[in-house]
Amino acid sequence: MSAQKLAKRSTPATKRRERDRLLRRSDILAAAEKTFATQGFHETRIEQIAQEAGYAAGTIYLYFADKESLYAALFVHKIEQMVAHVETRTKLARDPLDGLRLAVRAQLEFHDENREFFDLFVRQRLHASPGADDPWQEVVTHYRRHFKVLVDMIELAQKEKLLRKTESHLLASALLGSIVQIARRAQREGSTEPLVKHAAFVCDLFLNGAKT
Predict the structure, then answer these.
(1) Rounded Cα gap, residues 85 and 164, in angstroms
(2) Average pLDDT value for residue range 129-150
(3) What is the CATH number of domain 1-64?
(4) What CATH class does 67-212 carry?
(5) Each residue of 68-86: pLDDT tens digit?
(6) Which of 24, 46, 157, 209 could be a cystine partner for 162, CB 3.0 to 4.6 Å?
């Protein structure tokens, strides 16, 4: 690309348009989250989201092909935030086991802060195994990134002989499974208690087992 074309693309007007585009997209995602949480996925119409965002329905379609694409983008946004939150917290770890404790606490904290959305996701069960062009593919990518954070800490703990040598992916799956089941149980029972209160239990069970 020539310097002249690059300069043209970087004009203040271009930057302003890009900021406006990102702001509109953010407004739409925020409105979608609120509407999906109160109406449910199947009952929500694009027109309701547009009204909540303060835009015309046609504006929504400039950013998202349909309601499922919008919902998938919202879930990608949430997963990005969750992974970033976990990664930020684990950087403060004193050692790998402390990192695992911080990761569990961070994930449960994020669920507490976004409970309505995650309750909706569990209740609607919209997530299927995506193909290469499926809008949910990016969700899987972020889940794998999150999973790798746990696997890396587990393998480091094994290297330092803080955890027994066994399949690290199975250990990470067991840890994540405990977190997911606690969240689902709270959702089924309609509990409003903070999930983060269970962080110590999850970590103790994972690190020490259920023996007396």
Answers:
(1) 28
(2) 76
(3) 1.10.10.60
(4) mainly alpha
(5) 889 989 988 988 999 999 9
(6) 157
